[in-house]
Amino acid sequence: MSLSVKHLLGIKDLTPGDIDLILRTADQFKDVLQRPIKKVPTLRDTTIVNLFYENSTRTRISFELAEKRLSADTINFAASGSSVSKGETLIDTVHNILSMKVDMVVMRHSASGAPHFLSRHINASIVNAGDGINEHPTQALLDAFSIRERLGGLEGKKVALLGDIMHSRVALSNIYLLTKMGAEVTVCGPPTLIPKHIEKLGVRVSYNVRETLAWCDVANVLRIQLERQNKPLFSTLREYSLYYGVNKALLDSLNKEIVIMHPGPINRGVELNSDVADSKQSIILDQVQNGVAVRMAVLYLLAGKKEEALS
What we know:
Layout: H1 16-33, E1 47-52, H2 58-69, E2 73-78, H3 90-98, E3 104-109, H4 114-119, E4 125-131, H5 137-151, E5 158-162, H6 169-180, E6 184-188, E7 204-206, H7 209-215, E8 218-221, H8 237-244, H9 248-252, E9 259-261, H10 274-277, H11 284-303
Parallel strand pairs: 1-2, 1-3, 3-4, 5-6, 5-8, 6-7, 8-9
């Protein structure tokens, strides 16, 4: 009943057994979150620092709430307004924080591999909250939890990842997780936003949104990440929406009802129309809610606490 890793740096490092354990533990924490008192003393002797070098809303709040629900002591760090602006290095920043006896670090950084680098230099457990265009493991875990909750499992399910696959750390983590757990995955988007040789990861590639939606059980629609693109990769957002956006008319033309997901933030009217994002097919708000339970499970398991502390 323990993880095979000390850190959660990426889904790539987890075994199917690790993933299953996290999801089953999250089931128990979701039950906790339905109680009138949504707090357990599980991590009351643990100090966690949220080290965010990149802007975040949902992920940061979700981790903070998960930590508070577990009774951990939390420290919130933002690069803006800190000594980082004076030239302090990542290692110096973290060593200064760890000297205050911190047990775990939740880290988001714009550089791919930053959490991996840090894990080789400090003793505290590291949770990757997103590193560059590499991975976002807790997002993939909460996506998997949400699919499992809606459809009853992952094995054999057909999942489409639509949009900016090239720059999406969510896409990569989802591909690693879904293929490990027996799901079928298709990535779909403009050719300029699909990485070369991505088929080697065990996924199909499509450039036709309607055909992809007709094939899948779940469509996880991804945001166009203009901030990560150093050159134009399609002509206009209007054209992108016309050819690759998901709208209600498109969904109604299918012969079945599929599940719609989005990791947020949504560019409404671009990759996803409001009539889809707010429809009964959408489980976007379920994803947000499930994120707290999944992150509670990750923190609990990495801290190595006894199972009875769940009660």
